[in-house]
Amino acid sequence: MALGELFGLLVMLAALFGMSTVLTRRGGLNSAAAPLAALALTELVLLAAGLLGILRPAGFVLAALGLLGGVAEVVLAKKKGETCPLAAALENPASKLFWAVALALEVGLWLLRPEFLNFDEYSFWGTAAKLTSENNALYTACDTGLPWQMTELAALPLASFFFQMFGAFAPWRAIFAADLLMLAAVAAAAGCAKKARLACPLFLAGLAVPTLVTVAGHTALLNTAWLEFLGDLPAGMLFGGAVAFWLAAKGQGPAARWLTLPVLMLAANVKSNTFVLGLAAAGLVALDAILFERGGAKRLAARLGFGAACLAAPTAQYLLWNNYIAGLVRQNAAAGGMGDTASASLPAVVVNGLKLLLGLPAESYFEARSDLFWQYGSAMTDAFFHRDVSVFGTGAAVVALTLAVFLAAVLLAPDKGARLRAALFAVGSSVCFAGYWLMLWLSYAFLLKDSTPESLASYPRYFASYYTGWLLLALAVLGIGCAAAKRPVFGRAAALGAGAVFAAALAVGAEPQFTLLGVSGGEYTSVRGEVAVAKAAKETIQPGQKVFLIRQGDEGFSWFLFNQQLAPALVYGEGGATYGEPALVEGMAYGAPYTAEEFAALLEKEQVDVLLVSQVDDIFEASYASLFADGLAEAKEGPTLYEKGEAGWTPAGEVTG
Fold first, then answer.
1. Would the pTM of this model clear 0.85, i.e. be above it?
2. Contacts of 67 (CB under 8 A, 6+ apart)
3. What is the pLDDT of residues 529-582, one digit of tens each?
4. Where do the coiled-coil regions begin and end (predicted)?
5. Which of 30, 125, 308, 392 satisfies CB 3.0 to 4.6 Å to 248 for a cystine?
């Protein structure tokens, strides 16, 4: 194992610690909330640098500023005879836990070295992170080998980039970056309760949330809640973490107050379909600032201005990104790509969906799908009450638990104003949940093409984004209630109770060996084998050569896995399929029917230089063996490269990895 990878990551973590120290000392920020602010500012700077084409210099500048900032604080404190300023970054018990868990997580992932396991990690998330790291440029500006434009938001690939600054790209460091964002959100939530006896159990409860919300009953399948590089859970945790940041930073000075804006921008910049979560967080922060900040009518204008800024900052960032992407899509279309593949624009979906909901006439496309619209609504309601999505059971059970945590916070509140404030977050977040539900309903009916009312594709994953953030927000509000309780014993009991309930649910409802707590390297054997083949092929393939992948039985996963390693050399073809004579693949969901002549013409049309034959079967042999000089003899022994020759496709060497 490369110690250099671990050391490089430690350097970047030290830079983040230096940033947190400066924010705590100079900005008056709660030390438990400082890591989230540091990550948000880092992402914002890297996004701007990426758009300007200076990503790598910006990364080095950020790292240098973080390290030098920490050193400068130590030197200045020593000159003034003050205590070590680094202790300020560890003042809150939740901050101590954050940095301890971050270090443990870094070493644990370095030892385990997990690979990407999910389809979407290869079709976008991991590939975007790899392209960004290897090209020192936003993935949107890289040649992906895909016929469409990558348009998803940039927070996760940029977070990965920051922790990939030293050494070659490694999936485990991307996973660490996503985990650190979630961990920072947990620290901000637990940091609302500033005493160790309160913060520690709440931190434990927050750590359990991603796993609890994604394990639906005992299963022998690996739960990847802390072992994946996908946007769903980080988006949800940052939704709750952004509001928790505001609660932890409130009352600690103007600098801490305004640092809420970059945190809200981070929460809104993870996934396009979770942008609404960032807006929900902004709305909740704005309401709390307007209604419950001190100053009365005299400072109403200032509070209204801050509330407007909370909503405007993430919205402006989102619109800027969309304008940037629109330009790239036009360029892609002009160059022969697919351009914009959406069936309807989001504003049109919202407007016409609301018209259908209110019984008003809508545009023809939406009217034609009105029956499907209502079928999806019925299916989602049924799933909410009857489909298990978490350790706690159904979505209704998760909502009930969340509202119970809010109720405990209301009951613990020391006065009427505090009770109203806790109730505001409970009611406001419930309204936001209704809005998120509506957004998913419209998406299922009018945007998602791989779903039916019977299947509700990715239903648990989509709702997990909201459930995780909502539970984390409830824990943050509970932490404030525990800290302010008139009788401290009740606050301690509530915090311990929350930690105990969440820990017990994790122990009873999840199998440790199928989570981060007990995962073994054997879970990654199959993927590592394919990655090794792809890397071996990459070493053999010459620059500029076009490669066509043949892996029979693939449903797209392996094609995207190979593309992540070989892009932009890999030709799209059918994007992962079982190739064969039409009669042999008839009825297959991922069958690609080509006669031998048609298959040869396809390779000619795509100007293929190399065939990477990863896996063949009887169908491929019966259909196309005549096109290969050896009749596929070497391919049947193992993954093989073939080059075009006079006698057909000729073996060019094995690629066993």
1. yes
2. 11, 14, 15, 18
3. 999 999 999 999 999 999 999 999 999 999 999 999 998 999 988 888 999 999
4. none
5. 30
